[in-house]
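User: Some background: our group keeps a shared notebook of sequences we're curious about, and every so often someone picks one and asks for a predicted structure to add to the entry. Today it's my turn. The entry only has the sequence so far, pasted here. Could you supply the structure so I can complete it?
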Amino acid sequence: MTWRKWVLVLSLLTPGIGLIVAFIGVAVYIAAAQSFGYYNLAGESSFSLEFWDRMLGRKVFSRAVMYVIYIGVISAFLSVAFAYPLAIWLRKPFPGSLAIGAMLKAPLLVHGLVAAFLFINVISYHGILNQLLQGIGLWDEPHRLQNDRNAIGVLILQTWKNMPFALLLLTGAVQSISDDVLNAARDLGSGSFDRFRKVIAPLTVSAMQAALIIIFIGALADFSFQVIAGPTNRQSLSQLMVFFKDGGRWNDAAVVGVSLMIIAIAGSALLAAVSRIVMRGRIA
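Assistant: Of course. Here's the predicted structure to add to the notebook entry:
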């Protein structure tokens, strides 16, 4: 393309993409500047590393960083792990496959807050699950299941909510694989797992990377699941940011926000690289 055509293409894209990039760029710039002392709404604005130095020294911040990485990585891998076999199963239409696919994608239509409150009602001290387990004799008395220390409830909610999205991406990728390729692998003696490892996984690695990255970023910054169903002894970075914002400490909130963006970018790049290396078979 000549430079004139590039100018024409950019001119046509500017009204749509240009505005989006501008708005996002301004928000990122202000957050970054606030983290270094500028745009201070409660005092003098000047360049300072004080807010970063103070935040990095807080134990609650380091615990929040490790916690959101744990939630983001585990949620992403669990969602993809459950979506892969379902995508392979639904690759070819069969009687009832459309209804099954629709039911599996239903969580996409449920708002996160609604899902969290429904989940809490099910696992609460006097909820359906406790009553069921007592009724069949597994438990003698109710057990406290909500707001568990290991955030199992949050992981269940994240996986339930995000698995349908991963399924959408992986189903399209799996369906694009030719029957001739799979039949050739079968004729050469490859079993089901070998066909997945050597044929399906390498050919769908791009869709899998997209699912991992998008789910990781969403789970990393999630607020509603953590507030309602998360552990009470840990805070996520989004909770920490809201806490500082509500206290009028905008510079501290900006440090947390920028940290969240850095973790999202670095984590996404690492997930994409590791998943491609593993799926391409470069690691034995």
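Suggested note for the entry: The mean pLDDT is 86. The chain has one domain: 54-279.
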